[in-house]
Amino acid sequence: MREFMQICGFWFVMSLLWCIETRASAAVLPPGDCPETCGNVNVPYPFGINDTSARIVNPRCAMNHFFMLTCNSTYNPPALYFGNIPVQNISVDEGTMSVTIDEAFDCYDKAGLTMNINRWMQLGDGPFRFSDTRNKLTAVGCDTLAFMTDAEGTFGSGCVSLCEENITLEDSCSGIGCCQTAVPRSLKTLNISIGSVDNHSLVLAFNPCGFAFLADQRTFNVSNFRLSDNPYSTKDYPTPDVVIEWVVREETCEKAQSRSNTSEYACGDNTNCTFSENGRGYRCLCREGFTGNPYLQQGCQDIDECKEPEKYPCEGSCKNTIGNYTCSCPLGMHGDGKTGCQGFRITTLATVLGALMLVSIIIFLIVIIWKKRRKEKNFLDNGGKLLKHQRVRIFTEAELAKATNNYVTSQLLGEGGFGSVYKGVLADNTQVAVKRPKDLDKTQLNEEFQHEIGFVSQVNHKNVVKILGLCLETTIPLLVYEFISNGSLYQHIHQRRSQILANWKNCLKIAAETALALDYLHSLANPPIIHGDVKSANILLDDDYTVKVADFGASVLISPGQSNMATKIQGTFGYLDPEYLMTSNLTEKSDVYSFGVVLVELLSGVKPNSSIVMRSGEKTNIIQKFLSSLENKKLSEILCFNATDEEMEEIGVFAELAKQCLSSSGVNRPTMKDVAEELGRLMKLHQSLWAQQNSEETENFLGGDSSSYLSIEIETTKMKQPDTLNMTTISFEYSADSV
Ligand SMILES: *[C@@H]1O[C@H](CO)[C@@H](O)[C@H](O)[C@H]1NC(C)=O
Ligand SMILES: *[C@@H]1O[C@H](CO)[C@@H](O)[C@H](O)[C@H]1NC(C)=O
Ligand SMILES: *[C@@H]1O[C@H](CO)[C@@H](O)[C@H](O)[C@H]1NC(C)=O
Ligand SMILES: *[C@@H]1O[C@H](CO)[C@@H](O)[C@H](O)[C@H]1NC(C)=O
Ligand SMILES: *[C@@H]1O[C@H](CO)[C@@H](O)[C@H](O)[C@H]1NC(C)=O
Ligand SMILES: *[C@@H]1O[C@H](CO)[C@@H](O)[C@H](O)[C@H]1NC(C)=O
Ligand SMILES: *[C@@H]1O[C@H](CO)[C@@H](O)[C@H](O)[C@H]1NC(C)=O
Ligand SMILES: *[C@@H]1O[C@H](CO)[C@@H](O)[C@H](O)[C@H]1NC(C)=O
Ligand SMILES: *[C@@H]1O[C@H](CO)[C@@H](O)[C@H](O)[C@H]1NC(C)=O
Ligand SMILES: *[C@@H]1O[C@H](CO)[C@@H](O)[C@H](O)[C@H]1NC(C)=O
């Protein structure tokens, strides 16, 4: 602005007219050579200065003659006058002018009133009013009565101040030693008169004089006065300011703005017009975002808010716009930058992300460690420590999952109440059967179990399915068996109508081998390993039709002396030892009974649990039928194959053995050793008999390995690869109490 005025001023010197023309269509602008200060008082447009020392004064320096103030520069510093009232300050923003008007006062002595100065003030015809909001009529004294009216006496108001000695005037004007009353609106003239109630006669000692004046509430400080003050002796108190409000023109904004002659509207660019009730006229204001003198054409200039961060806060990057500014929050934060940015700073974001990542890594590690711990715990719980020292191979969970192709259904060999058996191929191409027991009560997997599992794992007999190893990492141990390719005896008898069993020799061989296996189990340890579930389905046949007794592991899960029949009795209906059923005491003799059933099954080809209807209409089972045909010497009736007379002799011995095995009382049954020996004897007998008859075909039967008399060539063609373990598993049932 100053620059503009200097430029304009420069040209004004050249041509006043030119300058006037350039602002012809705008609000009237003061010429550039107008003085702006008088002493230390700033005199902004619309005010102008009529300096007493200046030869010529341009009337355009003020909006109009009402705003022309007088500067008496003979004073040092020069003093500014509004009429005859000294002016202290002018505020364009507030539309005010602070002036000093001498106070009214009265003084008394013992004789009475000595001095009474009332004040009379008037603001002329201009658009000036006493401020009704800032000023208050104020009286100071202890017996003082102040009264004010306008010149015409259209209103009157006042206050009385009374007090006693030794009061303090430190606080605000509270009524003791000082009283105040409000000034009415639109006041242009004011008479202030002062008096007393009692000629100060009671308070003369400390308060000879009273004072009355208008005072600006913003600056008035009553403690500047003392009750002992006497304006004649010493005036050491400052005269309080009086605030005069002004408007540019006494008309409404609407009226001013609607004038066709735009130069009659006092407000410049980027301004707003405000109406003052006190002055009943309008003033100008720079719009928000602009600052300067709104009465100059281009007085209101854009504020560069970014340079004043205290007044115009911005947390982000600040950008000034005309009349406003934008503030964008830093990357990664959101919100209005002026009132603050929310969210994360990039660094905070990175920190948080980092922390999250760290936490996830820790959790990941914890999970891995926990899993490993769990595996180790399972391993230990399942007797890993004990078994480690034994010959049994310990498989890992992963190894078996891989071998069984993650227990895919196509690998399923069999399924039963106890769990499932899957075929698997180990890394070294060994075929295995993996038994996955169903959930067991964990507490049942006690040390005894572990011990026996360890023991059973050492079983090594050519007619017993080998346990290759265990997996102890799982909650319930997985059992890994060798894979037996040719199915079970059950399948051969009942499902395949296998030709190999249409031959007495083969039946005898299978019976003898099974007996050897059971005898082996019974004699291996003390207490003996009881199979517990001897049946045709648990007698597997390998490629060479060599017997492999399976599922003896079941027996170790049956602890003796359990009392609850319903949950404890294991085994398969039809094969179960009736004595075991009654006493629930599983012994080797229970295996002998079941074996007897298998012998009958071999002879008859009938399922032991199927019922047979007799000619008499009576229902019976194959065991009963077998026993009665043996009694009646009509054994051939139940045979499922043809036999020669010589063979029938052997079969008779065989049947007698079976009958002994089937004795209802365990003590009357032979031991497995007896049975194995008897069958072995029978085999030898048969072989020599057979050899005599077929001496020319010697090469047809194989001497086999020296330890076995059982190697007999099987004269049937090899069968298609069977779904081997299917039946072997069905009867094997874990139950919580049996473990
Ligand atoms: C300035 O003041 C003098 C004396 O009071 C007066 O004669 C003169 O007209 C004034 N000039 C203007 C421009 O008001
Ligand atoms: C200016 O002040 C001086 C000194 O008080 C006085 O004599 C003179 O009359 C004043 N001039 C005007 C114009 O008031
Ligand atoms: C005038 O008033 C302004 C605020 O309105 C203040 O900052 C300034 O100090 C005052 N000047 C005088 C001389 O009283
Ligand atoms: C006060 O003094 C005046 C004369 O100075 C006298 O006329 C008046 O009676 C006095 N009033 C009182 C209440 O003493
Ligand atoms: C106010 O004072 C003036 C000047 O002394 C006087 O002419 C006028 O009558 C007074 N008005 C009132 C109402 O007292
Ligand atoms: C006021 O103070 C003075 C001196 O401090 C003392 O002499 C006088 O008695 C006090 N007056 C009252 C009414 O307390
Ligand atoms: C009033 O003035 C006194 C001393 O003159 C000072 O101590 C006090 O702070 C002032 N009060 C205000 C509100 O300015
Ligand atoms: C507009 O008003 C100004 C000041 O009152 C005057 O000088 C000017 O001649 C007026 N213009 C017109 C076109 O009325
Ligand atoms: C100023 O005027 C403009 C438009 O005339 C209006 O949008 C704005 O609110 C006004 N501001 C004030 C503070 O009156
Ligand atoms: C400035 O911009 C903000 C929004 O960014 C808006 O709220 C405000 O009213 C604007 N101020 C002015 C004077 O236009």
Automatic annotation (TrEMBL):
**Amino acids binding ATP:** 435
Supply the Pfam families for this chain.
GUB_WAK_bind, PK_Tyr_Ser-Thr
Q: Where in the cell is it found?
A: Membrane
Membrane-crossing ranges are: 349-370
Q: Which UniProt keywords apply?
A: ATP-binding, Disulfide bond, EGF-like domain, Glycoprotein, Kinase, Membrane, Nucleotide-binding, Repeat, Serine/threonine-protein kinase, Signal, Transferase, Transmembrane, Transmembrane helix
- Supply the CDD domains for this chain: EGF_CA, STKc_IRAK
Chain ranges of the EGF-like domain: 302-342
Statement: the UniProt record of this protein carries the keyword Glycoprotein: yes
Please state every residue range assigned to the domain named Protein kinase: 407-689
Q: Does the keyword Repeat apply?
A: yes
**Leader sequence segment:** 1-26
Note the topology in the membrane. Single-pass type I membrane protein
InterPro entries assigned to the protein according to its UniProt record, in alphabetical order:
EGF (IPR000742), EGF-like_Ca-bd_dom (IPR001881), EGF-type_Asp/Asn_hydroxyl_site (IPR000152), EGF_Ca-bd_CS (IPR018097), Growth_fac_rcpt_cys_sf (IPR009030), Kinase-like_dom_sf (IPR011009), Prot_kinase_dom (IPR000719), Protein_kinase_ATP_BS (IPR017441)
Q: Please list the coiled coil stretches.
A: none
Q: Which reaction does it catalyse?
A: L-seryl-[protein] + ATP = O-phospho-L-seryl-[protein] + ADP + H(+); L-threonyl-[protein] + ATP = O-phospho-L-threonyl-[protein] + ADP + H(+)
Q: What is its main location?
A: membrane
Q: What is this protein called?
A: Protein kinase domain-containing protein
Q: Which organism is it from?
A: Hevea brasiliensis
